[in-house]
Structure formats: C-alpha cells, structure tokens
Amino acid sequence: MSAQKDIIVALDEGTTNAKAVALDSQGNVVAKFSQALAIHTPREGWVEQSGDALLEASLAVVAQAIAAVGAHRVAALAISNQRETAIGWYRTSGRPIGPAITWQCSRTADFCRALREQGREAHIKSATGLPVAPLFSASKMRWLLESVPNGMALAQQAEICLGTIDSWLLWNLTHGQSFRCDISNASRTQLLNLNSGQWDSEMLALFGIPRQALPEICPSSYPFGVTQGLATIPDGIPILAMIGDSHAALFAHGLGTEGCVKATYGTGSSVMAPVFTTQSAVNALATTIAWHDGDTLVYGLEGNIPHTGDAVAWMADSTGLSELPDAQLLHELNTLPATVDSTLGVYFVPALTGLGAPWWDEDARGLIHGLSRGVKRAHLVRAALESITYQIADVVSAMRQHKGFQLSALMVDGGPTKNDWLMQYQADLLGCPVMRSDIPELSAIGAGLLARKNLLGIATSQLHDYLPDHVSFQPDMVRHGRLQKRWHEWQSAVERTRWQTR
C-alpha cells in the first residue's frame, strides 16, 4: 500500500442500513457514513426491499466516504452484505425484475414444505450443508423467475441475472463488467456444492435455476473488478473483497480462532462457529462456507435466528416505547430490564415469520406466554431482551452436538450488544465469557481486512494487529445454574408456538 493510497473504503449493506467506513493504514476507522433502508411487508410473511433503493443508499455512503478522505488516497473497496436476500435483473438494461426478496421472507414456505414432503431434504443438506427453509436464496430466485413473463426462458438465454446482494452491488459498481459473487454468499443460496465449491447441477435442476443466470464464484479476498461509469465514484478503484456480513463479523472478531463462536445481534442473529470439515451430524444447523481468504477455505457451523433485535423493536412498538425520541428509546431499552427482578414468568417467543434454527418451523407464530395481572411494560421489554439470549443459547446447545466443538468465548457484535445488562445475562446463561466488540462497523472491518490481505499480499495471520479490542463479560456460575430452569421454561413456550403444525 503506497503512502498516497492508504485508505480502504468498506461498505456494509445490511437489512436496515447501508454503512460505509474508511479504514486507514493501521485499520482505524477515520470516517463513516450511514443511510437507513426501508423494509416492505406487502403480505403476511412477505418481506422485501427495493433493489434500486439498496443500490442508491450503498453508492451514496461509499461516495461520501471517498469524498471525506480524498479519492487520491483510496486504494480499494470492500463489500459485506446482508445474506440470502435474492434479486434478479435484466442483463441488457440492468433493471431489477422485481423486488429484492429478503432473508426474512417466507413467501416460498409452501414450495419448501413440498420439498420436505417429497423426501428431498436429506439430499439437499448433504450437498449444500443447508436445511430446507425459505430463508435461503434458491427458492426465492425460483419465485422471481416465476413472477415475470417468460422469466425462465429469459434466464435460460442469460438475459436475466440472478444473484445475492454482493453480485448486484458489484454489477453496478463496475457498470455491468463484473458478474461475480463471493463463495460465502454463494454458500447461502442452497445451490452451491460444499465439497466442490461450485454450483451444483442437481440443485440447479431441483430449484429450476439456469446456471447461465448465476454469477461466477470467487474467493472472498479477490480482485472482483474496478469501479467505472458512476457519477459520484471515480473510475478505476479495485474491489478486492466481498463477503456475507455475518462471515465478515466472524473474521473481524478473531480471524477464525477455534472455540471463538460469534453471535451478531442485529435485526436477526447469526450464530457461527469456525469448523474445518463439511461433515456434521447436527441436522438442526447449517454447515456453510465462512470464507476463502485467497489461500484457505474455512467452513462455519451456523444457526440463523430471524427475530432478535427485531423482537425488541416489535415489543417497543407494541408497548408504545417506539413513540419516544431515539435517544430516550435507547435509554429505556437499556434501563427498563434492570428495574424488575424478573419477567414475572412471561416468555416472549418472537416467531413473527416462523422459527429459525434450531427449530426450522416457518409455520410457527409468535407468542407471549405467562401473562398475569402484575405484568407491566418493564416485564414485557425484559422478556423481549431475554428472548434474544435464549434463542442464541438454543443454537449453541445444538452446536455442542458437533464432534470436536468447543466454546471458549462468545464473540458478540451488533446494536443490542451495547446493553450491558443483556450481555451479562447472556454470559450467565451460557456459563462462558461474552466478548463484545464495541465497534458497530465490525462487518465492514472484516471485509476491509480481507481486502487488505489481497492488497498487501500477506498471510491472514499477519492481520492480527488490525483486529479491534473487546470488552469482557465474565459469567456468574451461581446465576448460571439458576438460569437453566428459566431456559427450560422458555423451551416449553417455544413448543406452544408450534402446536398448530403438528
């Protein structure tokens, strides 16, 4: 990296915000910008976003970051993105064929149920590492093709492009010259064969996705293309990394250190542990590709939870807290739980569009269990926050079934982790240290680290000096024992959300 070009600009295109950070030669954040994104729910269980809006916000924050530091200093761009969200666009015009169908959307639940009823799930999971669920991209891509006139024929003729959000952003950043995706995002589509690292012919046939409509798969740290044809971003800036946001956060926490399990607390949550084999007997979890750093492929054992921060937002709406100014709302969410000793037996299971890992039940619906006359707003808010910790503990419990799995610390990031009460409750529940990164741009930093590796031509181990510090929450083991009873009561409440599906 030359003295003149010492900045990496990293974009984190998430579900609710597009953020861009400028990272200097020491890995420090020297500028950051953010723009909110709208989510649309046109029908029950449907969740979508405008692909144009995602792009516009992403280009805007990247342009702001470049302008803040000076284009002459920018050595490379890096991208982390919301995963599983699927989008299609016409190759000639570059216009979307429909909305971006987000990872939360369950509109393909009937199709996924039919696959399970046909006995296809075992084969699909063996090939892709993923259970059958509407979370993943393949069924969404199928829906997109079926929703436009002659969609399948146009895709077969390579007139329609299908991709995850990384490929959509890359296409537009390079003026349609690069149609590629990174291997971590590809592994979330249910179309990638885990062992070969390429699109799986059987999965393409099963989901009805033409290979010619899909991007080229590349390592996460790779020269994906260069910027061109944009009014606000200079031509010629290399894009040197792309990676799914949860994978990027795991990379930024510890570069994949064994025993360090990562939990991102966002709209939903990804709980991911680095593993070094595709073989797993834990059917309730996904085996995925964490990243390919250009030298080594690292796998991940993962559980996806649709509603964690979203559960707290729902409760804030339902109890009137969301009408407060943002600063006051945050204060209330951080302080209310500690004003009561318990939830008075209330459990909130936020299956608002179904349950994710380890249950995988898209038909389940949310439940507030255990209401009594004495329950007040503080008890309900506390129940919403506790629901985050219980859901993460459910996934960690499933991970313990994986041969050789170890948990030395839970590495956490995301907005809700700023709540010290929540972090201590999580540590006490799990009985292990919780290590919090107080840098909100962790996913962007992870992508930036991968770009730095490519730019400097160094080994991943040489990136340790760039890693952010963590705040430690040590478990109270006496309280850990007491909380096991509450966790089991939570699991009983979860079962109540599922009774209609039996």
TrEMBL record:
Keywords in alphabetical order: ATP-binding, Kinase, Nucleotide-binding, Transferase
Q: Name one GO molecular function term.
A: glycerol kinase activity
List the InterPro entries: ATPase_NBD (IPR043129), Carb_kinase_FGGY (IPR000577), Carb_kinase_FGGY_CS (IPR018483), FGGY_C (IPR018485), FGGY_N (IPR018484)
Q: In this protein, which residues make up the domain named Carbohydrate kinase FGGY N-terminal?
A: 7-251
Could you give a single Gene Ontology term from the biological process aspect?
Answer: glycerol catabolic process
Q: Which SUPFAM superfamilies match?
A: Actin-like ATPase domain
Q: Name one Pfam family in it.
A: FGGY_C
Q: What PROSITE patterns does the record tag this protein with?
A: FGGY_KINASES_2 (PS00445)
Carbohydrate kinase FGGY C-terminal domain segment(s): 262-451
Chain segments annotated as coiled-coil in the UniProt record: none
Lineage top rank: taxon: Bacteria
* Recorded GO CC terms: cytosol
Q: Which family does it belong to?
A: Belongs to the FGGY kinase family.
Q: What protein am I looking at? A: ATP:glycerol 3-phosphotransferase
